[in-house]
Amino acid sequence: MNGYAPPASQSPSPPLYRATHDPEGPATLSTTVIHALADCMGVDVTDSRISLYDTVDPDALNSLFRPRHDGTPRAGGTLSFVVGGHHVTVRGDGEILIQPPARR
User: Which whole-number Å values give the CA distances from 71 to 15, 24, 36, 82, 99, in the listed order?
Assistant: First the structure.
């Protein structure tokens, strides 16, 4: 415990959005992240506000968590980045966590 208590006037954080990427499915990890962000934001996936390119290289993201050359999954590791104020964490097991910006 760190002893820090947030000020009472601070509004509660919005709920954490969860999605899961299926590495055996047809979509790439970056595509799953884009769809999860669109869902979380309540916008169409083609909305111009959703882009990974300004934050993370989609091809590098796909490669980072791709199964090893022998086919075994990469279960460890995480990558976190921010897209449009949304904090995104991608885990090696396929879990995607999105924390929307706090409301004021």
Answer: 35, 11, 26, 30, 31
Global pTM value: 0.81
CB neighbour list of residue 51: distance below 8 Å, 6 or more residues apart: 83
Phi and psi at 58, nearest 5°, equal -55, -40
- Cβ(34)–Cβ(50) under 8 Å? yes
Neighbour tally for 95: CB within 10 Å: 13
Instruction: Check if the beta carbon of residue 88 is closer than 8 Å to that of residue 34.
Output: no
- For 13-44, how does the pLDDT look when each residue is reduced to its tens digit (9 = 90+)? 668 999 999 988 999 999 999 999 999 999 99
Instruction: Report the C-alpha gap between 46 and 3 in whole angstroms.
Output: 44
Is-contact 26 14, C-beta < 8 A? no
pLDDT, tens digit (0-9, with 9 covering 90-100), for 63-90? 998 888 898 877 789 999 999 899 999 9
